[in-house]
Design a protein that fits this description.
Largest sheet: 5 strands, antiparallel
Number of helices: 5
Radius of gyration: 18 Å
Number of strands: 7
Strand content: 15-25%
Shape: globular
Order of helices and strands: HHEEHEHEEEEH
Distance between the termini: 61 Å
């Protein structure tokens, strides 16, 4: 292969890598500050759902990805089925210290789908609050109970 062909293939490969990285990062960090109802449905429809650190999947260690079982996935989908998507100001995504709801939780995580979509979440007291969904307190508490075994692997101390 000539130098010209090699440079062309390298340029195409580099472009593909940059586009893929942008897509992966964009899946969990929406530029407009809010997920659409379709994005939430797409996340929940993923064949595999995991509880992970609040980092892009491609930088996580396998031991940081805690796969939900079939019954857990079904229960999660049921709990979140009718939830309303809320508008989240973009500034809240950029300020981890303030937190999505102006809380001081440092227990931030993702519910990651095998389709590259994710939902940002946090543990506050004995509740799981999702950044992009409005949930009543009882649902937040049920989410905490459901996800607690996985969360205990991510965080050293849980309420």
């Amino acid at each position: 292969m000539g130098a010209k062909g090699y440079k062309m293939k390298t340029a195409i490969l580099n472009t593909a890598i940059v586009l893929a990285a942008g897509w992966v990062l964009g899946a969990c960090a929406q530029g407009n500050g809010a997920l659409s109802q379709g994005a939430v449905r797409a996340t929940l429809a993923a064949q595999t759902l995991m509880v992970t650190p609040a980092t892009p999947e491609w930088v996580q260690q396998g031991s940081e990805q805690h796969k939900l079982g079939d019954a857990e996935r079904t229960q999660l989908r049921s709990l979140l089925k009718g939830a309303q998507v809320r508008h989240v100001p973009d500034s809240m995504y950029r300020s981890a210290e303030e937190g999505n709801r102006s809380d001081s939780s440092d227990r931030v995580f993702y519910i990651y789908g095998s389709n590259g979509q994710c939902l940002g979440a946090r543990v506050v007291d004995q509740r799981v609050m999702l950044d992009d969904l409005d949930l009543d307190e009882a649902t937040q508490q049920r989410l905490y109970t459901l996800l607690r075994p996985h969360l205990s692997r991510l965080f050293t101390q849980l309420p």
